[in-house]
Design brief:
The chain has helices at residues 3-26, 37-59, 65-73, 82-103, 105-110, 114-121, 130-158, 173-187, 197-209, 225-243. It is built from 10 helices and no strands. It has a single domain (3-243), classed as Glycerol uptake facilitator protein (Up-down Bundle), CATH 1.20.1080.
């Protein structure tokens, strides 16, 4: 499996399971309806575990455009590979979230709250304040990328593996899953912690395209925040890591 296919499959699995977790927690007549934030944060952490476990050996498991950009800024990843990785991640996220919608399509049509329907696909602010919302996404992604850089760099140095692929997978699937869980539990209550442009943009596109009885707006006026915030957070994390 080449790097781009690994990113496509890893991100696809992440979003199939992650969107499914949101749908199961939210949609009418789903068995896990209203199970709450702990269910969501643990579920997304396990979804990351799956994506990293599959993609890690082949691409390093970035499964996140912000991670690819942050690693490039830190000098740990070739800039020439960034566009291909980002496109593979966006395509994988689209495919995964589309398959999740397909799995829950009957439940989507039983659900009448359009805001809840959108929330299964994409993120939104608990309190709308654009500057604050960008910062919330920035700080969550900063923690993700800084810890990935710090722990992966220390591990590779200790094991004398200069050619190892750096990404979420260089931490190991379980540590990075736990990292995502604690980010969600600590920092996710403000914007739903996208911390990944592909995780928000691709499923938002799926929401706009698929037929759902009570769908409502895809809230495109907010869509730039979970793109810009994570990318800024990743860049700042990379600069801080290099400075330290």
């Amino acid at each position: 499996m080449n790097e781009l296919l690994a990113e496509f499959i890893g991100t696809g699995l992440l979003m199939l399971l992650g969107t499914g977790i949101n749908a199961n927690n939210t949609l009418s007549k789903a068995y896990a309806q209203n199970t709450g934030w702990v269910f969501i944060t643990l579920g997304w952490g396990l979804a990351v575990f799956v994506g990293v476990a599959v993609a890690g050996p082949y691409s390093g498991a970035h499964i996140n455009p912000a991670v690819s950009i942050g690693l490039a800024v830190a000098g740990k990843f070739a800039w020439s590979k960034v566009p291909g990785f980002v496109l593979a991640q966006l395509a994988g996220a689209f495919t995964g979230s589309f398959l999740a919608w397909l799995s829950y399509s009957a439940h989507y049509n039983e659900t009448t709250d359009s805001g809840s329907i959108l929330g299964t696909f994409s993120t939104g602010p608990a309190i709308s304040n654009k500057l604050q919302n960008v910062f919330n996404e920035l700080i969550g992604t900063f923690v993700l990328v800084f810890v990935v850089l710090y722990l992966s760099g220390a591990s590779i140095t200790a094991n004398n593996l200069p050619d190892a692929k750096i990404g979420l997978g260089s931490l190991g699937a379980l540590p990075v899953a736990l990292l995502v869980v604690v980010i969600g539990m600590a920092l996710g209550g403000t914007t739903g912690y996208a911390i990944n442009p592909a995780r928000d943009l691709s499923p938002r596109i799926v929401h706009a395209l698929v037929p759902i009885k009570h769908k409502g707006s895809s809230n495109w006026q907010y869509a730039w925040i979970p793109i810009v915030g994570p990318i800024l957070g990743a860049i700042i994390a990379a600069l801080a890591f290099n400075a330290i």
